[in-house]
Each structure stands twice: as C-alpha cells, then as structure tokens.
Amino acid sequence: FPQNGTKKVWDFMRTHDSVSILIFNTSRQCFVVVKQFRPAVYMCELERHHPQVFQNQDKETFTRLEDPLPAVVGVTYELCAGIVDKPDLSLEEIACEEVLEECGYRVPVTDLRRITSYRSGVGVTGSTQTLFYTEVTDQMRTSEGGGHPAEGELIEVVEIPLEDSMKFAYDETLPKTMGVIFSFMWFQNNIAPKLPKK
Q: What sequence ranges are listed for the domain Nudix hydrolase (predicted)?
C-alpha cells in the first residue's frame, strides 16, 4: 500500500474477534482471572535470553539448547476470554460460555455489563475484543473450570484479592495482558467507590 509516497508491505494475520470478561467474586471480594501457557510469550523470552537460537531465522529448526528456559516463563495472567466463532450466539452468550468453561461459574446473560470494545493486536491482527464485567458468588460456581483439555486448553483459575489488585496490576514480575491492567483500573473508578465500606 502507498503511504506518503512510499510503497509499504505489511504482513497481517486474519483472526477471530474475541470477548473478555472481568469477573469479580463478591463472596470473597476477589477478581477471578486465568493463567495459561502462551507459546509466543515463551519464544519472546527465549529470544531475549538466548538470541543465538534465532540467528538463522530461515531455518525450520532451532538450535537445541542444553539448558532450556522453564515453561513458566511463557505463562501469563489474563482475563477469562474466548474467540467469537459461533455466529448463532451473541457476544454476551459467548462470554457466558467462556466464564463457565474457563472459570466454572454459571452466569446469566442479564448479569453481564458491557464495558467497551477495542482493537487488539493492532500490529498483526487488528481484531476487535469486547470487554464485559460480571459479578459472581461462590454459589454460582458449578465446576472447577480449566477450559477444554480436548481442545488443548490448560487453564488455571486464579483469585486476586481486591485489596491487592492494583499492586498486582503494576507488578512487572507477574506477566499479564493489558486487559487485566485496564479492567482493574476501570473497576477502581466505576465499581469500587460503590462497594460497602468495611
């Protein structure tokens, strides 16, 4: 494409739009997020620690490392989320399915609050993600969650206490998505002031 008189070439990847859900458990005053292994994050860490592995990028195979990085360097904290790949379902219905599959809470569509939508992966995909908020209680939990192992999902459900949430959001030693940081800040501005004082 031409831009300011210069011909440019840019790679992009077609992908699905997605939903993400900020889940707040009112029974225990904590956020419910997920942890999972992300190969792309692992490979970025691998390149940072062992740049020699990527010196011959044209090759299909990588140099075998004597001392590979532990898999934990590729694990990130994320909001419960999922791709929009069911045309017969609304975004809200897909979000509710994801909350049940990944975190084990059965949430009615009417309990979802749409926060906003935004572009994600603007350098590569440009897809749209829609962010929702929902409150759950311990009584709404019907399973352990964890995703679908048959689909290759290996998800750990994690609870972040409300009082620790902003420290968690800015702790760079805990890899997380921007969605976690943004949604925690949104909560502090929109929900926290209305909570009963202890």
A: 14-182
Q: Which residues, including other chains, have CB under 8 Å from residue 22's CB and lie 6 or more apart?
A: 31, 79, 115, 131, 132, 133, 134, 183, 184, 186, 187
Q: Which domains does the chain have, with CATH numbers?
A: 16-53+68-190 (3.90.79.10)
Q: Is 3 helix (H, G, I), strand (E, B) or coil?
A: strand
What is the per-residue pLDDT across 46-78, written as a single tens digit (0 to 9) for each? 888 888 777 766 666 666 677 788 989 999 999
Over the stretch 9-18, which tens digit does the pLDDT of each residue have? 877 778 889 9
Rounded to whole angstroms, the Cα distance separating 95 from 41 reads 24
Rg, the chain, Cα only = 19
Q: Is 197 exposed, middle or buried (0-12, 13-18, 19+ CB in 10 A)?
A: exposed
Residue 3 pLDDT grade (very low, low, confident, very high; cuts 50, 70, 90): confident
Q: Report how far residue 64's alpha carbon sits from residue 62's, in angstroms, rounded to the nearest whole number.
A: 6
- State both tokens at 157: 């459900």
